[in-house]
């Protein structure tokens, strides 16, 4: 900058009076002193320098520095996230695989399904070439990630393709579990069998979103059957042949609940009932979710149809009485749970249990009790701003009025 200033000064037209002509040394020094003085004034002169600017525009300066600081912090945090979410997970793969995965993620971000799938295929091929086993967590993880991205692309437009990918992984894992069992490679068998069971439930959920209840039920039933079979095998087998950790009670409860929900939505209440009972017995006791499971159990019992070869009226009454007991138990448990264990789920469960008691009373012809329960459920729902609960209570009262006409 100083060089440009000096050259500009020498090009300026000089006075013709020889006595005013500066010497070479003074000609060089004057601009430097002048500009240096100007910079010094900028920082030190209160009337026109940096301090004056700051005093006159304090808010603007603070905003400017805040923006700069935020930009730097955001940039640094962005790099941290990139390293944590991309670089670290990819570090288990060889370089060619990493490159293909990054390409797949790039194409996914652009919504290019074809190129993304091709990149994942290349990544899987390179991984297997490098010596990674096709049933390893790393290779199977690539296939599962491909399915997850297919599910997200264009608001689920490729959900059917995602299901196909996951079903192939499930088939590979199921076959691998059988192979490893014959080879007595128990740890490997345990890994692929657990993954297959979890994939079955995931596939079932995806079929639910696609409106394919039959396929959803089939996938979840397969997983539940395999889970129960392995539970039974472990009861009579030496722990050395277990292969490692299995599903704990909480995980089993969640698995049984998934299939029970599918049966409930399909109107197969007799199949949902034992699953909800099992799920409620395995879930963490005295929790809000246990209350929810007991509520669902009561609902299934109240809606069950008696077997064809039975005394229909007697069996129906027995089912309704059992349903009432479970709904009352759910309500009693919910009222005992206090913070911090108590959550919004408990409040919702209280509304549902009270409503269920109203429904059961209506079915049993106890109209006055039913009215009280529906009104109580509606009042609770309004207090909790639960519009759905209010609507359910109003529907129950409307049905009751129709019955009384």
Automatic annotation (TrEMBL):
Is Signal one of the keywords UniProt gives this record? Answer: no
Q: What are its GO cellular component terms? A: i-AAA complex
Q: Which InterPro entries match?
A: Mrg3-like, TPR-like_helical_dom_sf
Any GO BP: protein quality control for misfolded or incompletely synthesized proteins
Keyword annotations of the record? Membrane, Transmembrane, Transmembrane helix
Report if keyword Thylakoid is assigned: no
> Which GO-annotated molecular functions does the record name?
misfolded protein binding
Membrane-traversing stretches: 61-82
Q: What is this protein called?
A: Similar to TPR repeat-containing protein P27G11.02 acc. no. Q9P7N6
Source organism per UniProt: Pyronema omphalodes (strain CBS 100304)
Q: What is the lineage of its organism?
A: Eukaryota, Fungi, Dikarya, Ascomycota, Pezizomycotina
């Amino acid at each position: 900058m100083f060089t440009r200033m000096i050259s500009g000064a020498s090009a300026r037209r000089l006075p013709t009076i020889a006595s005013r002509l500066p010497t070479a040394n003074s000609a060089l020094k004057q601009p430097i002193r002048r500009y240096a003085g100007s910079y010094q004034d900028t920082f030190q002169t209160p009337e026109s320098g940096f301090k004056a600017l700051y005093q006159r525009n304090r808010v603007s300066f603070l905003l400017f520095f805040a923006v700069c600081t935020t930009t730097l912090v955001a940039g640094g945090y962005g790099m941290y996230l990139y390293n944590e979410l991309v670089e670290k997970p990819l570090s288990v793969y060889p370089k060619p695989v990493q490159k293909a995965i990054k390409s797949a993620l790039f194409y996914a971000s652009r919504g290019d399904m074809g190129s993304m799938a091709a990149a994942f295929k290349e990544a899987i091929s390179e991984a297997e070439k490098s010596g990674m086993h096709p049933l390893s967590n790393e290779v199977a993880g690539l296939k599962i990630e491909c399915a997850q991205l297919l599910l997200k692309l264009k608001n689920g437009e490729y959900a059917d393709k995602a299901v196909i990918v996951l079903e192939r992984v499930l088939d590979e894992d199921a076959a691998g579990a059988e192979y490893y069992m014959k080879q007595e490679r128990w740890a490997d068998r345990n890994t692929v069998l657990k993954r297959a069971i979890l994939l079955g439930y995931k596939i079932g959920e995806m079929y639910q979103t696609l409106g394919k209840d039959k396929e959803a039920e089939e996938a979840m039933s397969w997983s539940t059957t395999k889970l129960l079979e392995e539970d039974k095998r472990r009861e009579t087998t030496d722990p050395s042949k277990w292969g490692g950790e299995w599903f704990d009670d909480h995980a089993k409860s969640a698995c049984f609940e998934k299939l029970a929900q599918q049966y409930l939505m399909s109107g197969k209440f007799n199949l949902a009932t034992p699953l909800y009972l099992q799920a409620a017995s395995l879930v963490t006791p005295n929790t809000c979710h246990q209350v929810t499971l007991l509520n669902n159990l009561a609902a299934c019992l109240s809606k069950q149809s008696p077997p064809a070869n039975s005394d229909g009226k007697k069996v129906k009454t027995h089912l309704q009485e059992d349903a009432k007991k479970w709904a009352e138990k759910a309500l009693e448990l919910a009222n005992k749970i206090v913070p911090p264990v108590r959550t919004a789920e408990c409040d919702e469960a209280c509304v549902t249990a009270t409503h269920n008691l109203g429904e059961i009373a209506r079915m049993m012809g106890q109209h006055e009790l039913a009215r009280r329960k529906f009104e109580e459920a509606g009042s609770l729902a309004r207090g909790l701003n639960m519009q759905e609960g209010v609507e359910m209570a109003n529907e129950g009262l409307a049905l009751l009025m129709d019955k009384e006409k």
